[in-house]
Write a structure and sequence with these properties.
The chain has eight helices and 16 strands. The chain is an alpha+beta fold. The protein folds into two domains: about 1-60, no CATH class; about 65-330, Jelly Rolls (Sandwich). The strands form four sheets. Strands 1, 2, 3, 4, 7, 12, 14 and 16 form an eight-stranded antiparallel sheet that branches. The protein is globular, with a radius of gyration of 20 Å. The two termini are about 25 Å apart. The protein binds 2-oxoglutaric acid. Belongs to the PhyH family. Its EC number is 1.14.11.18. GO terms for molecular function: L-ascorbic acid binding; metal ion binding; phytanoyl-CoA dioxygenase activity.
């Protein structure tokens, strides 16, 4: 195990240096089972060699920037997350540091909280029940394929996409999650997003632009949507309209792992139900913080830091202060983050 850990670390260092890391098989112990990555010499830049993913799965993620694993989270766990979300929505439980968001279409019209008003909760690292999601062994087993063995849970959300009011505000514009993160390198960050029910185009499934994880971080801004747009729902305006789109139809418990540069969003919820998904962005504890001043992320820093300072009476100066507060170790050791 120690040698596997050392191999993963070496891959990560090579990744930091901007070199393809896949053929770092020199560090792989000769006593371990020969993995497909060794027997089939090819460059893997986005996945690590830890004998969890099949060769086909690795190749798929390398090419497309996402990977769906069917039936990964049990009905029991999903019911428990649902129950806890309902308690939070009714203010029966108030985890410290949690952001509770409402859809822009109901922001002004309704004031009392209920599960029909809350469109998203963010930052549930202090809620033991919801945070169990980030520690589920079957989730971490896959996360480790992207982050290596020392894993931090950085960003947690439960999304309760409301029925669209007709103004299309339930859409989530196409974006890259790295826009919100002041840590790098991107290849050692991964999102796990689990469907809490059947999700398809009718209730607003995820839509991804396969292969876009190979690009760079693009400038984001608020879309000029007529019906308004939710707070912090920044989007990319200049994506290629001809890029192929893949709509991820998922069943309850299915989980998609995706790269933070993958362009994705979600459609309107045309049903009367509230579409639920739970997610966590994980990063290698070896990742490091960057200063986003002077970059396209400066604008998200300003908005998020102001929002958090106002909401919690804190005095954060930088985007990284927000993430240092949210970050929790879920496997291995805390290193840089
Ligand atoms: O669950 C969704 O609708 C999309 C979530 C998403 O992409 C995000 O919050 O970054």
């Amino acid at each position: 195990m120690d040698s596997l850990r050392a191999a993963a670390r070496l891959q990560m260092v090579l990744g930091h240096l901007g070199r393809p890391s896949a053929t770092a098989v020199v560090a792989h112990p000769t006593s371990e089972t020969i993995s497909p990555a060794i027997s089939c010499p090819q460059k893997f830049q986005y996945t690590l060699d830890n004998n969890v993913l099949t060769l086909e799965q690795r190749q798929f993620y390398e090419k497309n920037g996402f990977l769906v694993i069917k039936n990964l989270v049990s009905d029991d766990d999903i019911q428990r997350f649902r129950d806890e979300f309902e308690k939070i929505s009714r203010s029966e439980v108030k985890p410290f540091g949690l952001m509770v968001m409402k859809d822009v279409s109901i922001l002004k019209s309704e004031h009392s909280l209920s599960e029909k008003v809350v469109s998203k909760i963010q930052g549930f690292q202090e809620d033991e029940e919801l945070f169990r999601y980030c520690r589920l062994p079957q989730i971490l087993k896959y996360v480790e394929c992207f982050t290596g063995p020392d894993i931090m849970a950085m960003h947690t959300m439960l999304i309760n996409k409301p029925p669209d009011s007709g103004k299309k505000t339930s859409r989530h514009p196409l974006h890259q999650d790295l826009h919100y993160f002041p840590f790098r390198p991107p290849n050692h960050i991964v999102c796990a997003w689990t469907a809490m029910e059947h999700i398809d185009r009718n209730n607003g499934c995820l839509v991804v632009l396969p292969g876009t994880h190979k690009g760079h971080l693009r400038p984001h801004s608020y879309p000029q949507w007529e019906g308004g747009v939710n707070i912090l729902f920044h989007g990319i305006q200049d994506y290629d309209q001809n890029d192929a789109r893949k709509y991820l139809v998922m069943e309850k418990g299915d989980t998609v792992f995706f790269h933070p540069l993958l362009i994705h969003g979600s459609g309107q919820n045309k049903t009367q139900g509230f579409r639920k998904a739970i997610s966590c962005h994980f990063a290698s504890a070896n990742c490091h913080y960057i200063d986003v001043k002077g970059t396209s992320q400066e604008f998200v820093e300003k908005e998020l830091v102001q929002l958090i300072n106002r909401q919690y009476g804190v005095n954060y100066a930088e985007l990284k202060d927000v993430w240092k507060f949210r970050a929790r170790v879920v496997k291995g050791e805390r290193i840089n983050l």
